[in-house]
Design goal:
By secondary structure, the protein is mainly α. It has two domains: 1-39; 43-76, no CATH class. The protein has helices at 2-27, 31-37, 46-52. Helix 1 (2-27) packs across helix 2 (31-37). 4% of the residues are buried.
Length: 85
């Protein structure tokens, strides 16, 4: 079982490196920059993805695109689902 986990981990790392190289090739960033940028989960809106080079264009009216801003407050819900508060 342990050897299977090692094999799966190596394969995941190999595929991740390959993806970083491909993203670097198509975005103009080095694969090292891509790797560093995506060490943690990243969330982008369509315009941010275009600016970074992940997408070629945003289809439709870009004024209608919902943009993510880190300064926006986080909405948290309390209580359990289905509870009437």
């Amino acid at each position: 079982y342990t050897e299977d986990v090692r094999i799966a981990t190596r394969e995941q790392e190999r595929l991740q490196t390959q993806i970083f190289h491909l993203l670097g090739l198509h975005t103009g960033h080095s694969w090292q920059e891509i790797e560093q940028y995506f060490l943690r989960d990243k969330y982008m809106d369509a315009l941010q993805a275009k600016k970074y080079g992940i997408v070629d264009e945003v289809v439709g009216n870009s004024e209608e695109v919902v943009q993510l801003h880190s300064a926006l407050p986080i909405v948290r819900f309390s209580g359990k689902i289905g509870e009437n508060n």
